[in-house]
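Q: Sequence in, structure out?
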Amino acid sequence: TGPVKDDNYEYTDLETRISRNNEFALDLYKKVTEDTLDNFMISPHSTEVAFAMLYAGARGLTELEISNVMNFHYPQENGFHQAMSLLNEELCGRDGDYFMIKIANGCWMDREYTVLQSFQDTLAYYYGVDMDTLDFAGAPENSRSIINDWVYEETDHWIEDAFPPSSITPFTVMVLANTFCFQAKWLKCFDPDYTYDGHFYLLDDGGTVTVPFMNGEDYFETFDGEGFDVLKLPYEGELVSMLILLPDEGNFEAFEAGLEGSFLISLYDSLETGFTHVKLPRWTISTDLNLSQILFDMGMSTAFQLGADFSGIDGVDDGIPWISTVVH
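A: Exactly. Output:
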């Protein structure tokens, strides 16, 4: 039997959507860390937007599982897509002379696949999607190239081959994509003349590696917590910032396990401005993740197999289509 809708369920507003987004961010982070000790970078909001578009076509148990894993609100008629649209507008509205934030959404369907007008209208109105058709059945590799070229252009040539070989097959009927591109300079830049090599301590074996450290002194917002330190580094324009959390030595695993969305928000109220010496390793991170198994293990099982209910996409509850691949 399918889930029972609660008409009195809390209406989804922008503040609630931000809170739920933060909760999913940490849920996803903790799940990814179970499988790797490597450095990685994830964009939870990008993942949520892509699944929000898919959510518009999900029904029954499939809809409920997506909602539970993504921390969406159920039923989705209670303002969910409006709140997601407002959040995207809030983020993109900060784009300007000082830095760039760009969000783009795309949807491609096989030319033989027919979708409901209501699904098309939701994606167009709330996510700015203009659906396109491709010949997945006859030319899957050419279709993959077209979609990858779109991603490449929308990310200002940063992401190449987003969809790897064989990720799009003759059986593919639809591809949904979100790109999130952010580029900015620090408000208080580090002077390259004060970059020195130093020891960086590793988690896995307690050893060290020698890496270049950026150094600087200025007035920053910080917080000295119990077992951890916090530093806020604003970007030019001061509408966006990086929040850095540094657990004390020996406290990393316990601190990581206790991270919650409400805790992150509370840290902003605890910050105080003071003269601070900042020492940060200079780094580059590039990450390719297949989130299919991760999301499956988090509880989104029905959507990844025959029997999935995406009847809100094509109007037919026949157990197809289902999710084959989630690339990030």
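The chain is about 35% helix and 20% strand.
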